[in-house]
Design brief:
14-stranded antiparallel β-sheet, 6% helix, mainly beta
Length: 204
């Protein structure tokens, strides 16, 4: 359907952050997003028996200054989205899972391969966090669990650094994307392209 999902394209001027709620179909591979819930009501929700294999992601909050989904996976062109109405709410498909999570570093990192079409923008003077693997891949912090209370455990050989941006940076998370979920459920995504990494580290 050629109708934008109406998700906020940028952080509210007040600085308030609303949670996003994702339900996951592990068998079909779809991840479906809505904002039409409250954290308490979502946590109390359970799937009916007919939705046996479906799962809830934890309530999430994005950390970018702005972002937009270009299309749903499987749609042939930008501006096209797949919708589903369930439990009295409208959901838009934002992700197609490519593989089940792989546990790395003794389970301290879960790596998930997926397809999505998502562009994030970070303003000059914003601080971004970048996770680097021992192999030199770099992933930017995209989302946190809504009630985040602790820092992630970073395995030996990995690095997690914060960078204050000297210029606006746009991160293109379209097509095949790797998501690294940490012990505290921080979500780092990428890998960053050489050009994106060069813009982030332009302070050097």
């Amino acid at each position: 359907m050629e109708r934008a999902p109406g998700l906020p394209s940028q952080r509210a001027l007040s600085g308030a952050v609303r949670a996003g709620f994702e339900i996951v179909d592990p068998l079909g591979g779809g991840v479906w997003l809505t904002r039409d819930w409250t954290v308490d009501a979502y946590e109390d929700f359970t799937f009916p028996w007919s939705w046996l294999h479906w799962q809830k992601n934890d309530p999430r909050r994005g950390v970018a200054d702005a972002g937009r989904f270009l299309r749903s996976p499987g749609c042939p062109a930008d501006g096209q989205f797949t919708y589903m109405t369930a439990f009295g709410r409208e959901f838009v498909q934002v992700v197609d899972l490519r593989a089940m999570p792989t546990r790395l570093e003794g389970g301290r990192i879960r790596r998930i391969e997926l397809e999505k079409h998502h562009v994030l923008s970070y303003a000059a003077s914003s601080t971004v966090r970048v996770l680097a693997s021992p192999e030199g891949e770099r992933f930017i912090l995209v989302a946190e669990t809504f009630e985040r209370t602790q820092e992630p455990s970073v395995p030996q050989g990995w690095t997690l650094d914060a960078f204050e941006l000297r210029q606006p940076v746009e991160v293109d998370l379209t097509g095949d994307v790797s998501v690294l979920r940490m012990t505290n459920e921080d979500s780092f995504q990428g890998p960053l392209s050489p050009a994106e990494w060069a813009q982030i580290r332009a302070w050097e």
